[in-house]
Design goal:
The chain has about 900 residues and is α+β, with helices and mostly antiparallel strands. The protein contains 15 helices and 60 strands. It has an eight-stranded mixed barrel. Strand 20 and strand 21 form a beta hairpin. About 45% of the residues are buried.
Length: about 900
């Protein structure tokens, strides 16, 4: 730090007194000459020891009294050494709209440098922080640190460039010498100095642009509210004066005034920082936060700030910040040719900001780590990520800097819960995810184009619970799959074909990749037992020899090789329900619990690309049968229609082309047995009661005995249909008529105990059963005998002529199959008679039986008569 001599100190004291007492009363009288004079005062004040801001951990944040020690004149323009009004011309070099890409609103804000923002209290403050006392820079935190800027000094691990940050304290800088000394970037203070821009910013920015030195900007904040942050953002955009820095605009948060806010909170500070940074990014600038290690660890540690760049101040031989950062301010004792006195020194760890070109080809990569975010980029075998912190690497970006031939590097990541993403997800140069909490478990890298012809890409990973693994190369897997072990760090190297591979020093294992073998696990819920433990690879789930029904089955694929949704699915045939379907209760579960229902048959299938590579085999142990033969890939295993519960299952996953499981132990040579589809029915006969059930066209009831059929129950004896398919009956009962399809129930028609004969019936099928089958039926009526066959809801029997049914036959016929002859009369009813008379040469309206046709009491004769009967007998009778 420069120490002012006694004369300079006296001048500073007089200037301060003048600025605080006299100047406010004559501000309106300042002329252009006084503005110029103020700049001379500014230069003098630089000798009083004022410097731009930065930060450092471990320093107390207690502030002293806030004393005004500098003055830069009334007009914001007075802070510019060249007296520029701040207007931006279209022909200004290097800041054309097409080149910069900055939003026009930046130009509009910059076009008037004299924009005034009301910020009276803060504008009267001198910096007080861990390294400032009343505006005077201390030497805090530099003990034992002697920083230089020589270009041949080795950069620390991961750093890509060395640079400086400067302010009005350094005065006029010879930027030609700075560049020649090997400084590769700069960060410039834009303000404020008592509410005004930094007096050296305009020249410093212009010189950096002239010499092609990448630069960023920082604003020293006093904000205590979001409103304050917006005001400071307004000033920053105005004071940029049309300059467009290629490095971020940093929000310098270090002043004790912020912490002394009675309403201070970390959440509010995070909102303040977000507000400023979002304002910068909204108009096209990169943005970030500057603070020391203490502030970042204790005040600025909200996850909401992880998305902004970090510039960390810690005067030390290494940076201890665990989060992601692009710049590290490691000393304030830098001695750089071209800079008056000492200056702050910085390392850059983000090569993408600088595109540092040393004429050599590099492979560059950066990791996104859980609870940290994006970390600084690394090159050529250095470690990206963390070790010893148990933090999962969630994303990885790779790129080639200064490629010597055409081509690129590509990455494919295996992500927890996703699997292998593919070479282009989320992009060819990125593998993994952010914001989802998913760990990368393995990676593959490969080169393309001529690059792949001339070079190999080697990479190794640090996996949880393993450590460093061996090197993989050129598309080989590195890491693990199926074990749930996240990657924590990675190293990558480019090696010319024929050159030696990287050393295996530090490796904990001699393999680069370990994959858990593909397996399928399954577990059974057994009556009177409950859920058993999961088994795999053909082991028995359930019980044998105990007569306990298997009630539910869950299957799971224990592998992460497939990321296309490949899975194993189960469908169960449950007693009293039938086939549940592939998604009931879920795709991986079939059966029920808590209902006492046995699973009677199962079928399993694979989906996605898994079905392309594997077959799933399974066999069932059924009650009263034992082990049945193996089924596979959706075939039925077990029985339906016999009421035989499954007691156990075995399941195997077999690679296509490999041998099927052995049939050892099977009691039968079939995997599935289904009771043929049939429809059963039983009749209630007068003076007899309920008869036994019959099926398949057999006679229910009696013939030749004159006994009326009084009730009929029908039932579908099959479980092929789980959609509610059924057979229904409607009966025409003497003294009642047609009862309807649901009286007394859908499967019953007639009465008992009332002595009422059924005179006619109609039957129908519902659901998908009606799509596949027809139901045929015929009746034996008193005084008539067997009538013709009816089907699918047609009437069979008689109505209106008091002929009771005595017997019935029913057949279930598959559509398209041979069926009974339906010719003849299946139904008879009392004929209806209609007639009409001709009176005086005109025909009257037709009337029905019992109605008068003609005239009475008028003596008018009927000159013609017409009558017609209608019945189920074809054509009726006409007179």
């Amino acid at each position: 730090m420069n120490r002012p001599n006694a004369s300079a100190a006296l001048v500073c004291t007089l200037l301060i007194a003048w600025s605080q007492i006299i100047q406010p009363y004559c501000a309106c009288a300042l002329s252009a000459q006084s503005v110029a004079s103020s700049q001379t005062v500014q230069q003098s004040s630089n000798d009083c020891g004022f410097q731009g801001e930065s930060s450092q951990d471990g320093q107390d944040d207690d502030s002293g009294s806030q004393v005004a020690t500098e003055w830069y004149g009334d007009d914001a323009n007075a802070a510019r050494p060249d007296g520029d009004s701040g207007s931006i011309s279209d022909d200004q070099s290097g800041i054309g709209t097409d080149e910069s890409g900055v939003d026009d609103s930046v130009r509009e804000a910059s076009a008037d440098d004299s924009v005034q923002v009301d910020f009276p209290e803060a504008d009267s403050l001198a910096p007080n922080s861990w390294r400032y006392v009343n505006g005077v820079l201390t030497d805090a935190g530099n003990e034992g640190i002697d920083a230089q800027s020589l270009a041949d000094e080795a950069l620390p691990n991961g750093a890509v460039a060395r640079g400086i940050d400067v302010s009005n304290f350094q005065g006029t800088i010879d930027w030609n010498q700075v560049k020649a000394a090997g400084i590769e970037f700069a960060i410039l203070k834009v303000g404020p100095v008592y509410g005004k821009p930094d007096s050296t910013f305009e020249r410093n920015a212009t010189e950096c642009e002239r010499l092609g030195i990448p630069y960023g900007v920082y604003y020293y904040s006093y904000a205590r509210s979001v409103a304050d942050a917006n005001k400071e953002a307004d000033r920053t955009l105005a004071w940029l004066g049309g300059h467009y820095p290629s490095l971020p605009i940093y929000y310098d948060l270090e002043d004790n005034y912020i912490l002394q806010d009675p309403n201070f909170s970390k959440d509010k500070l995070a909102q303040i920082a977000q507000t400023f940074c979002n304002r910068m990014e909204a108009v096209g600038f990169k943005s970030g936060i500057y603070a020391n290690l203490n502030w970042f660890n204790n005040y600025l540690n909200s996850p909401s700030l992880n998305g902004y760049d970090h510039w960390v101040a810690q005067y030390n031989w290494h940076c201890d910040y665990a989060g992601s950062y692009s710049f590290w301010q490691y000393s304030s004792r830098g001695n750089v040719p071209g800079v008056n006195g000492s200056c702050d020194m910085n390392y850059c760890f983000n090569g993408s900001y600088l595109n540092v070109d040393d004429g050599k080809m590099h492979i560059q990569y950066e990791a996104h780590v859980s609870n940290i975010g994006w970390m600084s980029s690394k090159r050529d075998g250095f470690t990206a990520g963390t070790t010893g912190q148990s933090k999962a690497m969630e994303d990885l970006k790779v790129s080639i800097l200064n490629p010597v031939s055409d081509g690129s590097v590509q990455i494919n990541a295996h992500v927890s819960g996703v699997g292998w993403q593919g070479w282009d997800t989320p992009s060819a140069s990125e593998g993994g995810t952010t914001g989802q909490g998913r760990a990368v478990e393995a990676v593959r890298l490969r080169l393309t184009g001529s690059l792949a012809r001339d070079y190999d890409v080697y990479y190794r990973v640090h996996a949880s619970n393993i450590g460093w693994m061996a090197w993989a190369k050129d598309g080989e897997e590195a890491g693990t799959t199926g074990y749930g072990r996240s990657l924590e760090a990675v190293q990558v190297r480019l090696v010319k074909k024929g050159d030696a591979a990287p050393s295996s020093d530090g490796a904990n294992v001699d393999y680069a990749f370990k994959k858990k073998p593909m397996s399928l696990t399954y577990r059974a819920h057994v009556s009177n037992v409950g859920w058993q433990g999961a088994v795999s690879d053909g082991a028995t789930a359930g019980t044998t020899g105990r007569g306990l029904a298997l009630e539910d089955l869950i299957v799971a694929l224990d592998s992460s090789d497939y990321s296309d949704g490949s899975a194993v699915q189960v469908d169960a045939h449950v007693s009293g329900i039938g086939w549940q379907g592939w998604d009931t209760p879920s795709a991986s579960e079939g059966g029920t619990t808590g209902q006492g229902r046995a699973v009677e048959a199962v079928r399993l299938r694979l989906t996605g690309s898994l079905a392309r590579d594997y077959d799933v085999y399974y066999r069932a142990h059924a009650s009263n049968i034992g082990w049945m033969a193996w089924a596979k890939d959706g075939e039925e295993a077990g029985t339906t229609g016999y009421g035989r519960s499954l007691e156990a299952v075995q399941v195997r996953l077999v690679k296509k082309g490999d041998a099927a499981p052995s049939s050892d132990g099977a009691n039968v040579d079939y995997a599935f047995k289904k009771k043929p589809m049939s429809l059963t029915y039983r009749a209630h006969v007068s003076n007899v009661g309920w008869q036994g059930a019959v099926s398949d066209g057999a006679t229910a009831g009696t013939t030749g005995r004159g006994l009326a059929l009084e009730d009929l129950i029908v039932a579908l004896d099959s479980s092929d249909y789980s959609d509610g398919s059924a057979v229904q009956v409607d009966a025409h009962v003497s003294g009642i008529g047609w009862q309807g399809w649901d009286t007394p129930s859908a499967s019953e028609g007639g009465t008992t105990g009332q002595g009422r004969a059924v005179e006619a019936v109609r039957l129908r099928l519902t659901g998908s059963l009606a799509r596949d089958y027809d139901v045929y039926y015929r009746v034996h009526a008193s005084n008539i005998g067997w009538m013709a066959w009816a089907k699918d809801g047609e009437e069979a029997g008689t109505t209106g002529i008091s002929c009771s049914l005595e017997a019935i036959q029913i057949k279930l016929i598959k559509k398209g199959a041979s069926h009974p002859d339906t010719s003849g009369y299946s139904h008879l009813e009392i004929p209806t008679v209609t007639y009409s008379s001709q009176v005086k040469g005109a025909w009257q309206n037709t009337v029905s039986a019992g109605d008068v046709s003609g005239t009475t009491g008028q003596g008018i004769p009927i000159t013609g008569f017409s009558a017609k009967t209608t019945s189920s007998v074809a054509d009726g009778i006409n007179y």
